[in-house]
């Protein structure tokens, strides 16, 4: 069943059409990859899905309900959580505290209950910290639970963001280049971790430049180029797709 | 023996010891001047607890907090002196009115950050300063509001300097405890998250717009509470007390104390509040030096604030942590 369906979505920045009439579906319980050369509009598409940007046209529906007009924190509560290409951690807070913030939508303690540290508050804190410990172990960042995020190694920062996103109890996880800055071993660990998350019933849409990882974990791939969807299908077909090869060759020609 | 004095234990024991000493003072002395000075410290500590939440933890600057203290003070002063409203009702009214003022100021300020928020709140302080002068029937204009009665609950009048001192510090300790609790639970984490990365906070499901208004209202309400207690402590209030200069001093206290800390700003608040009264505390200081300090009080605190921003961004809190040998910037943040 389709969990996310994107229909004809577009976004213009001045004269530039960053996302141009893009449609695709993400099926429940799968890992889908979103790839494309630099500037193809992948991050912009993520921003459109999560309420950080407003589309100029098109619609998004999630689990059957329209997401149009929802603000970022409301999108999270519906069950869509994301990470950022440029990690947005809370640098002064520890790894565990960063993930605890992700528990915000599922916790209840307000100013009054927090100020009085009611028994319900203490119980909630205890449960939340337990779940955070579990999530940190799941992504393999548990040794950084008490380290301020500012002092956490680059690769682990992305893992902390994934754990924080998972803490919101999402149905769909949007990851923007989770393997950027990871070495080969770390990337393999990430692949295992992504499959484990999927096996826990969480659907994943991942933007990634690391083709090894993409081919390894994803069941389906959408390819964007200059804002437009140029291909969609299983990894083996995408690898052979003429339009995709040309888009990437074009990119290499630019860099050459 | 010494190994039991870990920073953690010290961090827990120090506030308790400080409280003990504070509440012992009335048994050791009956120096009216000393009570007056220490009462001022207590009142400022209350304001600072709220401003540390807003500025130090949530990262939202306010250069208008003196105005919220003023709203609380004039509300409580007017209601008790001119209307004969029971003290406790007047204090609640002052607190709530300042909180509502903070809420109303926060709404249009939501889109503003950094310098722009500073300018907007600064403007608010200036507008309120004018109103405190011009709303003569309520505020008494430049002559101020006289004859504000002491605190009383029913027939019980708290009319001695020592009694008032205990009242103010009692409230201050409660406010500090509640604030410290907020900091280490869900709303406090959301505030620190907002400070760290608003995008990250939004992506974690924090309604940052709502959070900003809530913290602003709470912080302003706490300032109003201090103002209300101030009015009944001194019996006379006038507009110049609630000027922009006081707002700047309050911000300086939080900066010097350290963002993301409660104890640091409270310590800085005590130091800066005591500065102009140095003669009462340190015997033998020359008259000239005291006069110099009193004349240049605002400049001294401003200058120290700039030095801290340039050379010791963590303020007193970071200094304390370094002395205590812990580097855990994120450790609860309450220390
Ligand atoms: N807020 C913005 N204002 C103006 N232009 C923007 C904005 N955000 C993105 N763009 C432009 O839109 C295009 C798509 O950018 P986007 O970040 O979505 O690409 P991307 O596919 O994520 O690229 P990369 O792989 O480099 O991350 C780029 O040309 C970019 O410069
Ligand atoms: Mg991108």
Q: What topology emerges from the helices and strands here?
A:
The complex is a heterodimer of chains A (256) and B (335).
Chain A: E1 2-13, E2 16-27, E3 31-35, H1 42-49, E4 57-62, E5 65-66, H2 72-78, E6 80-82, H3 95-102, H4 111-116, H5 119-139, H6 154-167, E7 172-176, H7 184-199, E8 203-207, H8 211-217, E9 220-225, E10 228-233, H9 235-240, H10 242-255
Parallel strand pairs in A: 3-8, 3-9, 6-7, 7-8
Antiparallel strand pairs in A: 1-2, 1-4, 4-5, 9-10
Chain B: H1 7-28, H2 32-57, H3 65-81, H4 87-109, H5 114-134, H6 136-139, E1 151-153, E2 156-158, H7 161-183, H8 186-196, H9 198-203, H10 208-234, H11 244-257, H12 263-274, H13 278-281, H14 287-295, H15 297-311, H16 315-324
Antiparallel strand pairs in B: 1-2
Helix pairs in contact in B: 1-7, 2-7, 2-10, 2-11, 2-12, 3-4, 3-5, 3-10, 4-10, 7-10, 8-10, 11-12, 11-15, 12-16
Walkthrough of the structure:
The complex is a heterodimer of chains A (256) and B (335). Chain A has 10 helices and 10 strands. Chain A has 256 residues and is α/β, with parallel strands linked by helices. In chain A, the strands form 2 sheets. In chain A, strands 6-7-8-3-9-10 form a 6-stranded mixed β-sheet, sandwiched between helices. Chain A has a 4-stranded antiparallel β-sheet with strand order 2-1-4-5, with helices on one face. Chain A is globular, with a radius of gyration of 19 Å. The termini of chain A are far apart. Chain B has a domain of 214 residues. In chain B, 73% of the residues lie in helices and 2% in strands. Chain B has a two-stranded antiparallel ribbon. In chain B, helix 2 runs parallel beside helix 7 and helix 8 crosses helix 10. Chain B is globular and about 50 Å long. The interface between A and B is large, with 47 and 33 residues. Bound molecules: adenosine-5'-triphosphate and magnesium ion. The site of adenosine-5'-triphosphate (ATP) has 12 residues of chain A, from strand 2 and helix 1.
């Amino acid at each position: 069943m389709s969990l996310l369906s994107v229909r004809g979505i577009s976004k213009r920045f001045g004269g530039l059409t960053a996302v141009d009439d893009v449609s695709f579906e993400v099926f429940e319980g799968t890992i889908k990859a979103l790839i494309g050369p630099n500037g193809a509009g992948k991050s912009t598409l993520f921003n459109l899905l999560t309420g950080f940007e407003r589309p100029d046209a098109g619609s998004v529906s999630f689990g059957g309900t329209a997401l149009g007009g929802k603000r970022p924190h409301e999108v999270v509560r519906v069950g869509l959580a994301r990470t950022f290409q440029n990690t947005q951690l809370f640098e002064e807070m520890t790894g565990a505290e960063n993930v605890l913030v992700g528990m915000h939508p599922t916790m209840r303690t307000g100013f009054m209950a927090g100020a009085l540290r009611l028994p319900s508050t203490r119980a909630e804190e205890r449960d939340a910290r337990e779940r955070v410990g579990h999530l940190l172990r799941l992504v393999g960042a548990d040794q950084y639970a008490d380290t301020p995020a500012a002092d956490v190694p680059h690769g682990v920062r992305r893992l902390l963001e994934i754990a924080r996103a998972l803490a919101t109890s999402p149905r769909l996880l949007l990851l923007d280049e989770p393997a950027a800055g990871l070495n080969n071993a770390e990337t393999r660990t990430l692949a295992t971790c992504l499959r484990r998350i999927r096996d826990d019933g969480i659907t994943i849409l991942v933007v990634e430049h690391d083709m090894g990882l993409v081919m390894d974990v994803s069941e389906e791939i959408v390819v964007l180029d200059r804002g437009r969807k140029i291909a969609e299908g299983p990894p083996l077909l995408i690898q052979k797709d003429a339009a995709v090869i040309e888009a990437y060759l074009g990119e290499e020609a630019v860099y050459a | 023996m010494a190994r039991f004095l870990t920073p953690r234990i010290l961090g827990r024991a120090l506030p308790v010891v400080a409280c003990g000493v504070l509440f012992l003072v009335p048994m050791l002395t009956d120096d009216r001047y000393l009570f007056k000075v220490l009462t001022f410290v207590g009142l400022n500590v209350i304001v600072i607890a709220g401003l540390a939440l807003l500025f130090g933890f949530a990262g939202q600057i306010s250069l208008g907090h003196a105005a919220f203290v003023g709203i609380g003070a004039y509300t409580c002063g007017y209601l008790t002196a001119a209307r004969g409203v029971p003290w406790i009702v007047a204090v609640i009214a002052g607190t709530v009115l300042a909180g509502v003022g903070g809420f109303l100021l926060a709404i249009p300020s939501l889109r503003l950050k950094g310098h722009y928020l500073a300018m907007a709140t600064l403007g608010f302080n200036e507008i309120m300063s004018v109103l405190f002068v011009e709303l003569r029937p309520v505020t008494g204009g430049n002559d101020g509001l006289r004859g504000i009665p002491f605190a009383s609950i029913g027939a019980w009048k708290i009319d001695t300097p020592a009694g008032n001192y205990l009242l103010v510090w009692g409230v201050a300790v409660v406010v500090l405890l509640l604030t410290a609790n907020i900091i280490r639970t869900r709303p406090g984490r959301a505030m620190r998250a907002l400070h760290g990365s608003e995008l990250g906070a939004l992506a974690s499901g924090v309604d940052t717009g709502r959070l900003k208004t809530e913290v602003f209202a709470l912080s302003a309400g706490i300032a109003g509470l201090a103002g209300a207690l101030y009015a009944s402590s001194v019996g006379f209030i006038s507009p110049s007390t609630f000027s922009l200069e006081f707002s700047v001093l309050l911000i300086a206290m939080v900066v010097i104390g350290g963002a993301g800390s409660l104890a640091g700003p409270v310590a800085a608040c005590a130091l800066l509040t005591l500065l102009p009264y140095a003669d009462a505390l340190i015997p033998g200081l020359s008259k000239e030096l005291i006069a110099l300090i009193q004349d240049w009080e605002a400049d001294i605190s401003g200058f120290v604030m700039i030095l801290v921003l340039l050379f010791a961004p963590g303020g007193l809190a970071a200094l304390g942590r370094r002395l205590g040998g812990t580097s855990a910037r994120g450790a609860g943040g309450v220390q």
